[in-house]
Amino acid sequence: MMKKDNIWIGLACVVLGVFIAFQMKFIQGTYLNGASPTQKTTEIINELTVVKAEKERLVEEIERLQDQLDKIQNSASEESAVVKNLTDELNRFKAFSGMTKVTGTGIMVTIDNPPKDLNVGLEKNIALDYKMLLDLINELNSAGAEAISINEQRMVNSTEIRLAGSQVNVNTIPISPPFIIKAIGSPSTLDGAVNIRFGIVQNLQESGYYVEVRQVENLEIGAFNGSMKFRYANTVK
Amino acid sequence: MKWSAKKKRILALTVLLGVLIALQFKTLNSGVKYLSIKEMYTQSIELESQKSELTQLNSKVEELRSQIDAYQTAKEDVQVDYEQFLINEIEATKQIAGLTKLEGPGVVIIITDGTRELIENEDPANIIVHDLDIRAMVDDLRNAGAEAIAINGQRVVFNKSNIQCTGPTIKINDQVFAPPYIIEAIGDRRFLESAINAPGSFSEDLRSWGVFVEVNTSISVTIPAYEGFVSYEFLN
Fold first, then answer.
1. Structural domain containing residue B163
2. A46 — contact with chain B (CB < 8 Å)?
3. Are residues B108 and B85 in the same domain?
4. Residue A210 is inside which H or E element, if any?
């Protein structure tokens, strides 16, 4: 009787041991993956949440201030026709310089890195091929785009697209893939211009990137958020 | 029923084991989030990007506030002529939009096709200036803080200027130009010059191909206004 008990207990111990080993292996294999559940991670995530909330608040604030400014302008325009004309002209130039939020028909181009292929040693990163983005934007411009943005960064006269590390700086804001490029204009013309045979979309696809072009009925492109002040240039008549 | 000492011991051990397993599960599900290094890296880039956006938005808020103040005083103060104030605002916006002629310190860059002998079977395209070369240089200049850029006397503005290859020539603002291309830019002379001369810049690549690139700084560069139409069809 005593002997039989021992055998059972031994068996149970073996099974348990296997289970515990399994559990350990599982944790090391999938959860940690070389990283540590340190405070750093939690810190980054918490900070990200805070920053995002702050950003939302600022966007609302900007909208409110913009409304306030519009109201002042409108009430002034009601007083005289000259002021109204001048205000309209001012708004036209503001739209041209990219300082206003605009809506309209257009296309949306999504570019992303290809899914990671473990067989290929080198990873493709669209940020390193940022010259293709320049080409795409030039192509959109020549097809008559009236406003363009990359990941919500409005393209204006001073906009640069710059490789910085493994991401791209646009308007000095670092952005990372997927890149979503919005362009307002005639949807079919813009679509045709980028999808032309041996054109930029084909070029990108042949380089292995994921590209999707969609015609959109109602696009919204935000205003340029930075400040534009000339320090060197002066107007001459 | 009387339990033997051995049975008691086994009971105690199994209870202990159960507690340990429960603890193990507990630690796994506690609030600590597990990220791989790769994910952590993406998150930190995201954080950096959001933070710089915050600074941008903050400056925008400041600007809007001061604008509201300016409008308010212009409207309410009898001393200030509101119409004149609007005219000044229009002038300032036109300047930013690239619709005025500008003058200031800057650089003059000359790019032209290379004159070196081709190596046997070499593609002549190697030493010719292409539209994408000009685009990349304009991008380099913007990155160096150029306030206004013109190519062969054509002002480059963002949405309206396309730089397009048209065979041996290049089309800028719908006008066709042949080499040499003269790029003028207003801004900090040192920054602009080093944007073209620095190692790792695009022009260095061009030079190594054999394309001729020369930069001269100047205390006074004049850049014409953009002369196209300001009209929109699709914008609201």
1. 102-223
2. no
3. no
4. strand A210-221
Per-residue model confidence (pLDDT) at position B230: 66
The residue out of B97, B114, B134 marking a domain boundary is B97
Query: B88 in contact with A at a CB cutoff of 8 Å?
Result: no
Distance (Å) from the alpha carbon of B149 to chain A's nearest alpha carbon: 9
Q: Is the residue at B63 inside a domain?
A: yes
B135 contacts A134 by C-beta, under 8 angstroms: yes
Scan residues 80-119 of A and list those with Cβ closer than 8 Å to B: 82-83, 86-87, 89-90, 92-99, 102-106
pLDDT of residue B12: 92
Report ipTM (2 d.p.): 0.73
- Domain regions of chain A by residue span: 39-96, 102-221
Predicted TM-score (pTM) above 0.90? no
Strands A167-170 and A210-221: unpaired
Distance CA A86, CA A76 (A): 11
Beta strands in chain B (DSSP E): 102-112, 148-151, 154-155, 163-166, 169-172, 175-177, 181-186, 212-223
**CATH fourth-level superfamily of A102-221:** Protein of unknown function DUF881 (3.30.70.1880)
Per DSSP, chain A holds a count of helices (H) and strands (E) of 6, 9
